[in-house]
Amino acid sequence: MTHGTQSGTQYQIWGRSTAVERVCEHHRQLTPCTPGGATDEGIRADMGFVDSALDEAGLLNPHVREYVAHWAEVTGAARIEVVDAADDARLVAEALEAGELMPAGEGRYYSRSYHKDTARSEERTIVATNDERHRGQYNNWRPAAEMRELLTSKMRGQLAGRTMYVVPYLMAPQGSPLEKYAAGVELTDTRTVVLHMIRMARVGVSSINDLAEPDSFVRAVHVAGDLPNLGQGTPEDQRYFVTIADERTILHYGSSYGGNALLGKIAHGLRQAAFDGFASGEFLSEQFLLLGITDKQTGEKHHVVGGFPSASGKTNLAMTLAPDALGDRYHVEFYGDDIAWIWPGEDGRLYAFNPEGGVFGVAKDTNELTNPTALHSVDEGSGAIFTNVAYNPDTQEVWWEGKTPQPPADVTGWEDWKGDKIADRSESEKDAPWAHPNSRFTTALSQVPNVSPAYDDPAGVPVDAIIFGGRTRDREPLVRAIHDIAEGVYDGLTLGAEATFAAEGVEGQLRYDPMSMRPFMSYAEADYAAHWLKIVGAASQPPIFAHVNWFQRDAEDGHFLWPGYRENLRALLWLVQLKNGEVKGQTTPVGIIPTREELNLEGLEIPDADLERILSIDNERWQQEIGFREEHLRQFEGLPEEIWEAHRRVAAALEDDA
Ligand code: OXD
Ligand code: MN
């Protein structure tokens, strides 16, 4: 493997690309076959074009070859192109030429998705297996055979006359102990999906040629379909996003956006990997950030992983810098903002790495205050791709809500995320957002200014703390730490965020999102809880657990009681000190919280009353919460007794303390 630089971006280079067309030999012409132009026998005879493409690319793995040939035949692809990260510049040039990308300054690009294809769709996402015991509350379980047949019929013939890109990838640093779960081959009909995969994974044939178990790779097929005619969100919705977990096959039909289409990320990196981790008993795959904190005075380094439901600040925390006042002493390093694979190491500690190669971050509200690191990771020359933000083709600038307090004053040239001119908006349209709320930036990890030099280390890093953080306007203190493993896992299972509007739920009740994995659960929640107990329990030096909350508000005027953003590091520093036995904290029924004196507030002004509130426990609200939790956990039949015991211990401690 070598490294190459394109427009200032470093990509890992694994090999060469190749494209070979299906040639209609029975017509003796060197043109791609057209739909309906050949008999079945003719098509089969013509499948030699697949072999030629794979030969030319040096793709030797016989199982991969068979898989590619199978889906080339099903989809009727006219042309096969095997992709390597080194193809990026050429593919970008082709996408610019085709209008799929537009330039957004030097070495940066802009794209729009179909306007009804802008987010993951949880209702259309299914985990299928051959065993109904995998049915859970959240995974929309269906039988494997039924889904394979349905998806095959949807994909049949869809690539007639078109290219099928073959994207071999690795969701792990090369050489990691979990490599056997990391290899995959995405087949896709969409060039911008290929460009995203190059940024989000390690792409090239060497990732699948030299597998210790050559048949151990994820088969991931993506067909976008006819986007304007898929009935998105209607009773006739045609979209299906299916992971057949026990066959390690992913079949996604009907989208070209984000996790629906970049199959290495969520479908493989989370759903499939979570299932593999459970089935093998070897690891956890979680929607977690991963960061490192170095104390420059002592040289000690600690690593934190953590799960946060959407809109609870996960990416901002993952990419945080130390607050200015503490910057001389502490350095924070970024490893990952969305996925961590976690396993027990031989030394008795838990280890983790980020399986992704890039960041697919939400653009909205990203600015110099909330996340300067993210902003600089998409600087000119970064190779970043923006999707569905606002765009000015005259100046090649991009903008999204919250990038600056106000949108550009001079609207000349500006277009909203759908491509409509801002200047042409009618009075009733003028307050509509310029960017889609789920607009994104995609950039390689290597572009993040404070990325750890060890981000690509296959050995991973030892985990000192596992944190969960929701968005809760009252009740949850700034940080509460939990030493007991079962209580920690129980806390993760009861993680949630407040419904955004009271109308979405009962006031003060959370939308529970266990471990922030609700949309990615691939097997039954009771087994998931047991697997967590097993993996963390296997560590003789387990990490400390904690729950954090940056979002408590004043009951009267609603102001946030804690300033958030970079200041959040102060809560993590206290947690690390607690783990190291340097502070004791105060014990409460729901965990250990810092005393005022223990929290490092150097350089931070915060009113006494606010501090008091975020460092105390509201027993009455907690007792109400215990009732909600009980209802939530009851859905999971067969939940391990340790989890129920933890629940009863916390409930009894609250009663005693009332
Ligand atoms: C998500 C993502 O949808 O990370 O959670 O893209
Ligand atoms: Mn995510």
Brief sketch in words of this structure:
With 658 residues, the protein is of the alpha+beta class. The chain has 17 helices and 33 strands.
Task: Describe the secondary structure blueprint for this structure.
Elements: E1 2-6, E2 9-13, E3 18-21, H1 40-45, H2 48-57, H3 62-75, E4 79-82, H4 88-97, E5 102-103, E6 109-111, E7 125-129, E8 142-143, H5 144-155, E9 163-170, E10 183-188, H6 191-200, E11 202-203, H7 206-209, E12 218-223, E13 240-244, E14 249-253, H8 258-261, H9 264-280, E15 284-286, E16 288-295, E17 301-307, H10 314-318, E18 330-336, E19 340-344, E20 350-353, E21 358-362, H11 372-377, E22 385-387, E23 390-392, E24 397-399, E25 440-444, E26 461-462, E27 465-469, E28 479-482, H12 485-493, E29 496-498, E30 510-512, H13 525-537, E31 544-548, H14 569-579, E32 586-588, E33 591-593, H15 608-614, H16 619-634, H17 641-657
Parallel strand pairs: 4-9, 6-22, 7-8, 7-13, 10-12, 12-14, 17-27, 27-31
Antiparallel strand pairs: 1-2, 3-4, 5-6, 9-10, 9-11, 13-14, 15-19, 16-17, 16-18, 19-20, 20-26, 21-25, 22-25, 23-24, 28-31, 29-30, 32-33
Helix pairs in contact: 4-6, 12-13, 12-17, 16-17
